[in-house]
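dumping the sequnces here before i forget
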Amino acid sequence: MPNLQWLLKSLLGLCLLTSLAHSAMAQTDTESDKPTSTATTEFETLVHELPKGSLSKRGQTIKALAMVNDERVPSVIEALQQGNLYADRGNPPTVAISSGKDAFIDALSGEAVAADTAEKLKRIPINNRMRSQLRTLLAAININHAQPDIRLNAVKQLISDGVDDDSVELLKTRQSTEPDAKVRDAITIAIALFNVESEDPSARLDAIALFSGSLEPEVRTKLTELATSDDNKQVRTKAQQALNAIEDRIAVYRFGENVFFGLSLGSVLLLSAIGLAITFGVMGVINMAHGELMMIGAYTTWVVQQIFPNQITYSLLIAVPAAFVVAGLVGIAIERGVIRFLYGRPLETLLATFGISLILQQAARSIFSPLNRAVSLPDWMSGSMEINPVLSITYNRFYILIFGLVVFFVLMMILKKTSLGLKVRAVSQNRSMARAVGVRANWVDALTFGLGSGIAGIAGVALSQLTNVGPNLGQAYIIDSFMVVVFGGVGNLWGTLVGAMGLGIINKFLEPYAGAVLAKVLVLVLLILFIQKKPKGLFPQKGRAAAD
Amino acid sequence: MLTQRLLLSDRGGMIVLGLIALTAVIVPILNLAVPHDSIFHVSTYTVTLLGKFLCYALLALSVDLIWGYAGILSLGHGAFFALGGYAMGMYLMRQIGDRGQYGNPELPDFMVFLNWDALPWYWQGFDMFWFAMLMVLVVPGLLALVFGWLAFRSRVTGVYFAIITQALTYALMLAFFRNEMGFGGNNGLTDFKDILGFSITASGTRVSLFVMSALMLILAYLACRYIVTSRMGRIIVSIRDAESRTRFCGYKVESYKLWLFVFSSVLAGIAGALYVPQVGIINPGEFSPLNSIELVVWVATGGRGTLFGAIVGAFAVNYGKTIFTSWSPEAWLFVLGSLFVLVTLVLPKGLVGLVARFKRTNKTPPNDTPDNTPKTPTLKPAEETH
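..and the predicted 3d for all of it:
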């Protein structure tokens, strides 16, 4: 086991190293405490200087202030830049930062300012030139910040404000020492954006070469400007080339984004359609109340969250089985109460279940009020992952996509590998033969319907994470899910998967050209035309099961 | 011969048509000639309400013709109704002229609001009554022709047909909600002023529209009756009961279905055109799938497969709706939902079937076995004519 030994050794070494580093850092901390104590006085005098004297003197004070190493500097400069810094006429003056309406915080001590002092406070005036100076100074402070995120934001701030002579020096010094690759790239772009303004055409050309592949909107506007109105022909063509390259990259990311949104829509369609694929595809029952079973699932999520308002993650985990059980039981009740009398009469089943859907909708309206209810998202599902300025992926859609696929494969396994699945398939293929070998067909019918309904409930949980929960929640999806089942081929789960994802992606790709509503209309029309060519869907059932 | 075939052999139909004809005569008299303070006076509101019901009955008739006789369940018949209504609405919009809010003599208000400077091409000609009436027939008919041709040709039947018709009306609803479509978007077409020069709110106009609706319903009933008692009608019924067998006998099933579907959608369009001037508005809500499926329930409640059953159902359900929604709007959806379930579970032949069953139990000992697919007893006497 030499490998294991080596691993243990290296782990031990790592522990040693980290503890060493800790003590070293502790040392530097105690060392660096001393200079700040002298700097504090410098900081205080400079802050006290701020309200006094002419505007030009204030500019110099600000510059000196920015050089001071004190953690309070950024907040003071930011407040001054946004016109939130106030002072009175005392000696030394009280300098305070406004923190909302009539509330002030002392710039030095960080404590709230008493009301009688606050009344005498006046805004420290600054002019436009100082405002931009301050912005650069703030960026300069942040550009050397310990956290890469703040550094990156500072560089982006500089890019969007426009890089000038002072800040470009700052960026150049930082560029050589910057450890983070992302920040370094941003700095390169920022410097190039400055250089591109140069008089010398060759410098402009060099700068344009650095732009390749950058997705910042400022770069694009600059390049567009250069490509149309630069007086040097070579610069114009180069700029156009760079612009084209960037547009191509953007097109790729837009494509990726469309695919993601399409898959996300597809996963919602998949969740709502696989329950239907069981009741409609396997049992041949048209269940128009399917959407309302989804609504029941969504309301279950909401109710569970009302019971555990502080445990959002756990309540979501509880909601999934709870919604399955609640919707499944309602489904079994529908099957036992109504549908079992209507087997073999699909049109009547359709009407009866539509009636049930109306009753369920109105029941939800009476119990939970017609208003929409908002279900809160757990932290790990909210927000989005920004891959670059053009492409970002929202977490809730991402997880629902995964969830949809998991549910799909679990269902597949249930139908293929369990004894219930075997019985379901047996009854759907040949009812009387199944009964002859001892399968309780009625019981299997009820369970199958319950399974399909339960999955609708789970789909409702997923939907509640995307939209508000209301009585009409299910209605919006019912026609689409029928389309998916018909498109994919009745009685075929793989067809449902391909159909859902396909329809989702087609929808999202049509949207930019046709708008959301028209895209939907077009998809419906396309589907109607598609059924012309393949009346049994993408993956028709073959053999005896198909002939009925 | 023809009277025998159309009326005398159809007692239920005769009673229903008689009642409609009677109301069409009495109600106008009670509204116009009887003084306002008399208890026999029928208010204009009631006249309009009855007129609305007549339009619904015509719509139900059109659905019963294809569902009850050919077994084609369309969950999108509301679309044809709404298209007919829009065609009429466009005529009425053009009649407003410069009396609109913005006073534009050419453009309807919503177009001025959207900063359009000219009428779109599809609005041309709607200022002429005859053209609008032609469009009331042509637009729903054409849509049904194209859609039906596509659907029947590839043998889309049963539930599949029901679902794609629902998708059709849903798609149209989404499209008509868009302002860019040029049909008034969300608000639809409203604020009508007059029709053929008569004020649309005047009692006289309302009564005339009511009488027109009654006449149209009677005519449509006779036409439908003519179809179902003809040779073609019997082929259509055989398609309903055994489609493949009929095809193997050499009949062009698709053509029969298509013809009937187009005729039915034109009837629905006429119903819509009569409906719009009476209620004074048409908006995309008429395309909603719920409306279309609700009207299927009218037919189911009345009794599918008997033409007068559809009329009875339309009146019964809508009367119930008027009463319930004024009593408690919340309860109506519960009632409607239960109606769907009850009618399919216990009343497969509807109210008409219930009456028929009563009669039979009173006359002779019950000897009918319950069957699943409702057949049409009214068809039997028709055999004598051939």
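Chain B is about 70% helix and 0% strand.
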